[in-house]
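Researcher: We plan to redesign the surface later, but first we want a full-length starting point. Tokens attached.
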């Protein structure tokens, strides 16, 4: 049995993917948040999520997170669901994933 197109389309729900980002160090101070839930329309890389957040939070966030080439700085540690990920091979996130961003702490 064929359904009219409008009935078929009504059954399709647009679902966004939600990830939780945890901030530590200087990024926590800049965002004034220890965590935030962010929604995206489709799966993408963790690097893309962080670049998106850099656009939202602007200069200070970008300067801490990114180097001159726009890559994530070696001093920034990124974890996906508690496991450290390589800056060279940032995996794709999935709905419900948790991303943690840690910045280096300097002092003496």
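Model: Full-length starting sequence:
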């Amino acid at each position: 049995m064929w359904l009219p197109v409008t009935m078929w389309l009504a059954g399709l729900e647009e679902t966004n993917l939600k990830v939780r980002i945890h901030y530590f160090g200087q990024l926590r101070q800049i965002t004034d948040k220890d965590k935030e839930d962010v929604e995206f329309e489709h799966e993408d890389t963790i690097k893309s999520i962080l670049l998106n957040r850099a656009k939202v939070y602007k200069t200070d966030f970008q300067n801490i997170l990114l180097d001159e080439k726009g890559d994530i700085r070696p001093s920034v540690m990124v974890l996906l669901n508690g496991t450290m990920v390589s800056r060279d091979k940032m995996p794709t996130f999935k709905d419900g994933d948790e991303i943690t961003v840690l910045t280096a702490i300097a002092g003496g």
